[in-house]
Design a protein that fits this description.
mainly beta, 4-stranded mixed β-sheet, 3-stranded antiparallel β-sheet, 42% strand, single chain
C-alpha cells in the first residue's frame, strides 16, 4: 500500500526493487528518495501496531507542491493540513514555503513543501 501511495499519488518512480530482500527504493523527479522494507522483524524497534507512523513527519521538498496536492485531491485523499503558504522564523530571517500534510497508508505524516523565498524579520 505504501509503495502504491508513493508512486501513484505522490509522483515518485521506482529507482530499484529487490524482491528477494523485500526492499524498494522510490525517487521523486525533484531528487528526494525513500526506501521501503517489508516488515520482517529486523528493523522493528518495538511493538508494531497501526498506525505505524506516530511521532514522525517525513518532509519532501519539491518544485511544485500544488501539483502534488492536485494528485492527492485526484486520489480522493484527505489532507491532514490543507495546502497553505507558511512563513517561519529561521533565526535571522523568515523562510516561506507552500506546503500541505497528508498521511500515507501506514499513518506516516508527510509534509510536501516548496520553498517560496525569504523575508527580513519583522
Amino acid at each position: 500500500a505504501a509503495f502504491a501511495f508513493w508512486t501513484s499519488v505522490m509522483g515518485f518512480v521506482p529507482a530499484f526493487v529487490r524482491p528477494g530482500q523485500r526492499l524498494a527504493c522510490v525517487e521523486h523527479p525533484d531528487g528526494a528518495q525513500l526506501m521501503f522494507y517489508e516488515r520482517d522483524g529486523d528493523w522493528e524497534t518495538g511493538a508494531m501496531e497501526r498506525p505505524f507512523g506516530r511521532g514522525i513527519v517525513v518532509q519532501v521538498y519539491v518544485t511544485d507542491a500544488m501539483a502534488v496536492a492536485d494528485r492527492v485531491r485526484a486520489a480522493g485523499l484527505d489532507f491532514y493540513v490543507a495546502p497553505r503558504e507558511k512563513w517561519r522564523d529561521w533565526g535571522d530571517r523568515l523562510g516561506g514555503q507552500r506546503e500541505f500534510l497528508v498521511q500515507d497508508p501506514d499513518g506516516y505524516l508527510v509534509m510536501v513543501a516548496e520553498r517560496i523565498g525569504e523575508r527580513p524579520l519583522p
